[in-house]
Task: structure prediction
Amino acid sequence: MKAHTEYLRFHTRKRRDYVHITPQVQEVVARSGIKEGMALVSAMHITAGVYVNDHESGLIQDIDAWLEKLAPARPDYQHHQTGEDNGDAHLKALLINHEVIVPITAGKLDFGTWQRIFYAEFDGQRDKRVIVKVMGI
Amino acid sequence: MKAHTEYLRFHTRKRRDYVHITPQVQEVVARSGIKEGMALVSAMHITAGVYVNDHESGLIQDIDAWLEKLAPARPDYQHHQTGEDNGDAHLKALLINHEVIVPITAGKLDFGTWQRIFYAEFDGQRDKRVIVKVMGI
Amino acid sequence: MKAHTEYLRFHTRKRRDYVHITPQVQEVVARSGIKEGMALVSAMHITAGVYVNDHESGLIQDIDAWLEKLAPARPDYQHHQTGEDNGDAHLKALLINHEVIVPITAGKLDFGTWQRIFYAEFDGQRDKRVIVKVMGI
Result:
């Protein structure tokens, strides 16, 4: 068994943003030399997520509006008594999830036609990281 | 380390459906010969999910009603400007999640008493697939 | 490849509770002797979850209120026709998710500064378990 780890770095210009990262993850898998296994793609923050869905700009707008509806920015979160103002970003990250595991077969992401990996930023404009850890043979 | 991969196939009669797949996943694990490890069970589509919960018909109705309440079918998703009409199916899949990782101990799914794996279809009546990738020793 | 499995046990005094388990998971990883790999941390119940987020009491109150808003306790779930009264606990568990996979690098959880693992109990006051399965080299 081999393990290979790299870190992707982000610094979005917007507070909320959705960054397509399938090519970067595929490159990490290629560099790992692993042909059969899994890649963990996991945000290293509590106000960001990673998800798999369609690379379509209308849908990304829908996802953003839906997250804001179900986990709205509001002044009155208890968390804000610490001086933070990003309570909604924590809840959005919990809703979308902070990680995915993607299957690797024959050295490639074993995805369906439309599956793509996204980094979802909910409290950006600062340095953030995603770990990509590949395990397999 | 060994890796073993199979694909489950679905073509539901209803647009939304919940299919119990624990026996099929256990059979894949048995065929893998793997005694200690993990199985990734992951929908290969962006309008379907995989989850673990109770195999109880009333609860499945509750889950369906709950997903429809939180991610309702609506005409006005931005995604529909592409000609699609399944914006809600994408959001439901994000809410329920498209994959689970299940532990394998002594050659079996190491589950609690009531845990069962379900395929959740949100845009069915067409061919769909789930990858089951088992890794371990 | 090595695999190492332990079970954490819970019996919360409250029906809903959020228990910080990062130290216990780190101890399991240390006992496994695994330096590079992943740990699956997964509730063995259908009314409990595991998530990664901030260890901050105000935020935990926000998370609890948010889960109750999106998946409220109500008398009229179909599931209650079985005699159960915990329909909301199933939905809360689906929302927060029942498992996480955490990366292990150099023998430690490869986490960002604020990432912590929590056991989320939604139908407590009884014995419950979480499996921690570590795989790697």
Notes: The two ends of chain B are 5 Å apart (CA to CA). The CA atoms of residues 47 and 90 of chain B lie 5 Å apart.
